Amino acid sequence: MASQPNPDERFDQVESTLNQLANSQRHLLTAQVLMNDRMERAETAIQKAAEMILALADSQKHTDEKLAGVADKLDALTDIVRKWYERHGNGTGGQQTS
Q1: How far, in Å, CA of 66 to CA of 48, rounded?
Q2: pLDDT of residue 98
Q3: pLDDT block averages, 10 residues each, the chain of length 98
Q4: How far is Cα 52 from Cα 62, in angstroms, rounded to an integer?
Q5: Per-residue model confidence (pLDDT) at position 90
Q6: Radius of gyration of the chain (CA)
Q7: What are the Cα distances from residue 7, in Å, to 1, 2, 49, 67, 90?
Q8: How far, in Å, CA of 18 to CA of 13, rounded?
Q9: Contact yes or no for 87/94 (Cβ under 8 A)
Q10: pLDDT at 6
Q11: Given this model, what pLDDT does residue 7 score?
Q12: What's the rounded Cα separation, in Å, for the pair 66 and 72?
């Protein structure tokens, strides 16, 4: 017959197991707190990035509007120069050379 462990040894085994469980629980709680902190930081960083993207999109819209205005002015200037050139030719005072 196998001998039964004595009650003191059995108690020591149970106590050791409970200590290991308590240590594991402390480690899990620490990991949970750290993970929660990292998630909060990530959420803050994502929020800041989203705000920056919106600001950049707004700035890009203004830049596009200004660029369109410059393009319109450049087109108008090109038309003026072309018309001037058509009227004045190659500097011959409006006279076309043959």
Answers
A1: 27
A2: 47
A3: 77 95 97 98 98 97 94 94 88 52
A4: 15
A5: 67
A6: 41
A7: 18, 15, 62, 88, 117
A8: 9
A9: yes
A10: 87
A11: 86
A12: 10
Q: What is the per-residue DSSP string for 22-60? A: HHHHHHHHHHHHHHHHHHHHHHHHHHHHHHHHHHHHHHH
Report the C-alpha gap between 14 and 7 in whole angstroms.
10
Residue 95, pLDDT score: 53
Tell me the residue length of the chain.
98
User: Which tokens hold the place of 25?
Assistant: 């629980």
Measured between alpha carbons, how far is 98 from 85 in angstroms, rounded to an integer?
17
Instruction: Please name the residues in contact with 13: beta carbons below 8 A apart, sequence gap of 6 or more.
Output: 5
Q: Which residue type occupies 22?
A: A
Tokens of 32: 């949970």
pTM of the predicted structure, to 2 decimals: 0.54
Place of tokens 């410059």: 70
| Residue 76, amino acid | A
